[in-house]
Design a protein that fits this description.
The protein is an alpha/beta fold and 68 residues long. The chain is built from three helices and three strands.
Length: 68
């Protein structure tokens, strides 16, 4: 699974859409669930968090396999 921070921004949304359009599993992180919904409709898993909330970001990345 790919985790995209800032997914509602210009670069993050381009990356998230590219991955989703190519059938990849994606978790999108953003401040507002409503703004994440276009990605959710494409199959992404939403995760609401402030970019500076360390505790929530640790949860967002928990349980993921690292790949190179």
């Amino acid at each position: 699974m790919y985790v995209i921070t800032g997914s509602t921004g210009r670069t993050g949304s381009a990356v998230a859409n590219y991955l989703l359009d190519n059938g990849q599993p994606v978790r999108v992180i953003g401040r507002n669930l409503d703004r994440l919904m276009p990605f959710v409709r494409k199959g992404a898993e939403p995760f609401v968090s402030e970019p500076t909330d360390v505790t929530m970001l640790i949860k967002a990345f928990s349980g993921l396999k690292q790949s190179m």
